[in-house]
Design goal:
The chain is an all-alpha fold. The chain has two domains: 34 residues; 162 residues. The chain is built from seven helices and no strands. It is flat, with a radius of gyration of 20 Å.
């Protein structure tokens, strides 16, 4: 067991294997059988949507609640370790988790028949999809910020692409402000997503 937990890849693989085992056991105990129908695939993509979303929002909150506020407390000699090692790795997972979240979210909406209703904020279905639509649009804005504002500016701020000291400082501030914008939007976005499925607007 120690060998599994000592290696992140092994740990993640073991997590998925455990999930499959639990799935089989629960199916056997409930007599549900193993027919993987349309509803099951809709569930599968919802689960993948949640997994990606946890990674995305978790890293967003890590940046805003942990890394950014504590950077002034880190000695200057140690700051390159954050900028050259930790931040680039975290940003890789951050932006691809955002991509995975938006992609699986659109698939879930399409499979469950509310994609058009959500994108039109309920105009096309008499308001039934308004709450989830608001959540989806907030998520889309956040995704856009990640890929087209935060990441391009972080590349300059971290020295991944060439930039002057003044450009690095300006890019770092822009990335921080849009990251804070996403933190702000994450609260109502998550509320709308959960409420739409659990009667929060009833």
């Amino acid at each position: 067991m120690q060998g599994v937990l000592s290696n992140l890849r092994s740990t993640v693989i073991a997590g998925f294997i455990l999930t499959v085992i639990l799935f089989i056991l629960i199916r056997m105990m409930t007599g549900a059988g193993f027919a993987l129908d349309y509803n099951w695939y809709a569930f599968l993509f919802r689960w993948l949507h949640v997994l990606n979303g946890v990674m995305w929002i978790g890293l967003l909150w890590y940046f805003n609640f942990v890394q950014i506020p504590n950077m002034p407390n880190i000695p200057d000699a140690q700051k390159p370790a954050i900028g050259k090692v930790i931040a680039p790795a975290a940003l890789w997972w951050f932006r691809w988790a955002a991509m995975g979240t938006i992609a699986t979210g659109l698939i879930v909406a399409g499979m469950n028949g509310y994609l058009i209703g959500a994108l039109t904020l309920g105009i096309s279905d008499g308001g039934a999809s308004t709450p989830i639509g608001i959540g989806m649009w907030l998520g889309a804005i956040m995704w856009f910020n990640v890929w087209f504002v935060i990441w391009p500016n972080q590349k300059k701020a971290l020295g991944i692409v060439e930039a002057s000291d003044a450009e690095k400082a300006a890019a770092g501030r822009t990335a921080m402000l849009f990251s804070r914008t996403n933190t702000l939007l994450s609260v109502p976005m998550l509320f709308c997503m959960v409420a739409a499925q659990n009667g929060g607007f009833a």
